[in-house]
Amino acid sequence: MKRTIYLFICFYCLVIAFPVFASDPLIHHSLAITLDLEKSNASIHNIATIPHSIIQSSSSFRLNKNSKIKQITFNGENISSAVSGDGFLKFKLPKNAKEGVVGSSKLICTYTIPLAIAKSNMETLFISGEDSFYPQPEIRDKTEFKLTFQIEIQTPSNIKVVSQGEKLKDIVEKKRRTVVWKESKPQEEILIIADHYHEFSSNHGAIALYAYLRDHDKDLAKRYFKATKSYIDLYSKLIAPYPYKKFALVENSRQTGYGMPSLTLLGSRVIRFPFILHTSYPHEILHNWFGNGVYIRPDSGNWAEGLTSYLADHLLLEQNGKGRQYRFQELMKYSSYVNETNDFPLMKFKGRDSMTSQAIGYGKMLMVFHMLRLEVGDTIFLKALRDFYNRNQFRYAGFKEIQASFEGVSGRNLEKFFNQWILRKGAPKLKLFSASQTKQNGTHLLKLETRQTQSDPTFTFKLPVAVWLTGKQKPIIKNINITNKKNISLFSFTKKPLKVLLDPYHEVFRRLNPKEVPPSLGKAYGSEIKSTVFPENNTPNELLSGYKLFDKSLETTPNRPHTSFENKPPSISKTSNVWVFGKNNKLSKKIKTQLNRYEVEVNEQGVTLEGNYFNWENHSFVFVVSHKDSNNEQLVWLITQSKKSIPGLIRKLPHYGKYGYLVFEGDEPKNVVKGIWPSSREGLDYTFTKGTYPLSSKEPLIKK
Asked: What is the C-alpha to C-alpha distance for residues 259 and 285, in angstroms, rounded to an integer?
């Protein structure tokens, strides 16, 4: 998976035999790297074994522009290099390189590169192929080649180095450590990570397990080993056997969450959050099948994040009966963060760089996979996923390959499905326009009129409908094939219908109706138009400056209107989300009135929420309520008594997008209460007979 590159550590290398994988052209790198901390450089000796097909496609190679070359030879012939205009050190192969060569050629490079080494020696050091620390062919289409490697790295004895693949050697002699990593499976790039690690090891059958931690935390390593084994078993059963010989948990001084071939790089704070073990961690492990087992075709959209989210984050909650809630949250994110101006089709999603791109590339994509599952059924869905993986293992693949597997296994033409959801942006809006029932000859007839209310052209999809009947506790689920903006559906039952509900399990990707979306921070952050109202004049200057700092953080998009008001409320526009700062604010009465509806009591001493009392002095509060006369826009009330808490709130609040109320403690600040306001299914349901209508959980894709 492509990722942001941080500081690196580089090192010294060796040579091995060239493995061959299928018909794909593979460059094999034999690297010997020596790390010199005193001189802050790395001496590198690289022997690249290059198939003739790549020589035919590329006549030049490139290295890091700061490389100091000692010698470059191609099949024994010396060649020269020079820094090019695009910032790489480049060297062309001899004119006769493409002629008279049978099999592979040898490109041998001996050089040094500088190291970006932190003087404190406290940061994790990292280098990847994006740093061009090994020679790479100048080929436009990166799918034309992949690589294998063996790398020997010499470091000071207190440094441990991790890479992909299998560890063949790790010894210490004369205060120098020598480690050898070998990867024979086709890779996109070579990765090197190093730090003052404490190494823990285990195994799961033939799979070696490692934990590289910056502290000697044996209990933490044990917890991760236990989780690793369970998730490898889960996905081996779901898809195919684990594709690598090892899996390593690697700690990073930076707060990252990266899935890489046979390892994951998690930040020091991230790795110790208890929930990570059962959220982000299985997601990163699954990337060894999708993203780092089947690679993402560069000219296609990034399908792997959505698929991995669906089979990790979503599946684990679905197994606990919470799949419906998870899908609803993803629909909330899309409805909150995505609008006509920033929407884009899945084919154009490359990676997450904002809440908008996350809502589309992760949320919409996982919903599309869920709808695909509904379209073909669970059994075929799993068979098609396995077919896609087995056909494309260690190759580049995109939506066309996914479509081919699903069409091949199902025996159906799915072109319309993929074109609509992958190539087209936007989402349908649904409304139950009318519902009626009649009785004829002992049969109860139910008539439903559903409409799509978006201005965009019609979407076609399968719409589940729940119908509760007399004498039946559980609803009957019917499916409507939506093909027009206006659809009339007729159903017959032996029992009288009591209630109907469209999309009961939140299984259709759509833009939620306004009343479905409870007031939330995500909706406030995603608003195109924002206003802020500062507290009254008696607010201490220091605290007021803190609020102004928070106000400035809301100006994330230059072209979006953002207006601040001093000491007086605006005439509140129904088209603007208003951020209200401070306990003593002229708009606080409006907000208190709405909070009373949720049984939240606010007085001079503090706040009573969920039956607990919180004083003003040591807490920060965030309450999100709707405009009194608007379903779309909101008032966000932020109260704190300490400027010191503001930077933490700026950093943390965007990650609490689904919540409508929050309480934080201290200056850090630490979250102590979070909650979601109730939502309504108004516009999607019709009740013929008042009563209680429970909705049980559906069967998960696979059981625990």
From this structure: 7
Calculated CA dihedral for residues 657, 659, 661, 662, nearest 10 degrees: -70
Query: Strand ranges (DSSP E) for 572-682?
Result: 577-581, 601-602, 606-609, 612-615, 619-626, 634-639, 661-665, 670-675
- CB contact set of 619 (below 8 Å; sequence gap of 6+): 606, 607, 640, 641, 663, 664, 665, 672
Question: For the sheet containing 486-493, what is the strand order?
Answer: 430-440, 443-452, 486-493
Domain ranges in the chain?
1-196, 296-423, 430-512, 521-675
Pairwise CA distance, residues 247 & 228, whole Å: 8
Cα–Cα distance measured from residue 72 to residue 46, given in angstroms and rounded to the nearest whole number: 10
For residue 192, give both structure tokens: 């090197």
**pLDDT per residue over 161-184, tens digit each?**
999 999 999 999 999 999 999 999
pTM of the model: 0.88
Distance CA 704, CA 699 (A): 11
430-512 matches 1-196 in CATH topology: yes
Give residue 106's Cα distance to chain centre. 40
Distance CA 608, CA 335 (A): 30
Q: How far is CA 456 from the centre of its chain?
A: 28
Pairing assessment for the beta strands 263-267 and 246-252 based on DSSP bridges: parallel
Element of type H or E holding 388 = helix 378-392
* Rounded CA separation 457/163 (Å): 49
**Model pLDDT, residue 14:** 32
- CB-based contacts of 213-219 (< 8 A; 24+ apart in sequence): 213/249, 213/251, 213/271, 214/124, 214/251, 214/253, 214/268
DSSP 254-288: S--EEEETTEEEEETTGGG-GGGGGTHHHHHHHTT
What is the number of residues in the chain?
704
> What are 82's strand-pairing partners?
90
Contacts of 552 (CB under 8 A, 6+ apart): none
pLDDT in tens, 507-541: 999 999 988 888 999 888 877 777 888 888 788 99
CATH of domain 1-196: 2.60.40.1730
CA–CA gap between residue 123 and residue 255 (Å, rounded): 11
Residues of the chain with pLDDT under 70: 1-23, 100-101, 117-122, 556-562, 564-576, 628-632
Q: What is the pLDDT of residue 13?
A: 32
Q: φ and ψ at 123, to 5 degrees?
A: -100, 145
CATH topology of domain 430-512: Immunoglobulin-like (2.60.40)
CATH architecture label of 521-675: 2-Layer Sandwich (3.30)
- How many angstroms separate the CA atoms of 132 and 65, rounded? 8
Segment 33-73, tens digit of pLDDT? 998 877 888 999 999 999 988 888 888 999 999 999 999 99
The CATH superfamily holding the domain 296-423 is Neutral Protease Domain 2 (1.10.390.10)
Measure CA of the first residue to CA of the last residue in the chain; give whole Å: 28
Based on the number of CB atoms within 10 Å of its own CB, is 570 exposed (0-12), middle (13-18) or buried (19 or more)? middle
